[in-house]
Each structure stands twice: as C-alpha cells, then as structure tokens.
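Entry type: protein chain
Record version: 2
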Amino acid sequence: MYRRRRPAAIWIAVTGIGLDVGGGPDDLPPGFADLVHASYPRLGGTRALTDIIERQAVGDPRKAPLGSLPGEILRLRHPELVPYTWDTVLDTSGWQD
C-alpha cells in the first residue's frame, strides 16, 4: 500500500483505528483481543463516538460535507436533511459570486 509521506506513527494509528472500528478479534493473533480487553474493555465506544458525530453534524451541517465520515453518517441516519454540498458552500458564501 502506498503510504504517502506520513510518519510511521500515523500509519500505525490509522491501522489500529481501522481494526478497532471495522475489524474484529479474528484480525489479531488468537487470544490477543481477550488479553487487551481484560484491562481495557471496549464499553461501546465506537457506537458512542458515532452518536456524537451524528449530533454534531445535525447541529452544524458544515461539519458533515459529502464524502466525509460525518457526511455519510448524516446521509444514512437523516435522509430527510439537505446535504451540505460544495454548492451550499458557494451559495452561502459572503462573496456572492
């Protein structure tokens, strides 16, 4: 995978977050998840974080542009809301051009 020019610590974090959110115990060596979760239980943090992102996006749609994670959460959970698009940015700009 092409890693661009980010430090290794960034890619370690990105990989870990990806496993934490979208992975599972089978993505790790056998027993590793149980060992970690004995000291650091998950406690539903991923769903709680998603709910916080949703609330912020509903409160301020500028935080949820199309193609972003907040934008996708808003689109799926609130299809009745008008999405914050590039045209919205242009139409609400103080420059009026």
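Comment: The chain has five helices and no strands.
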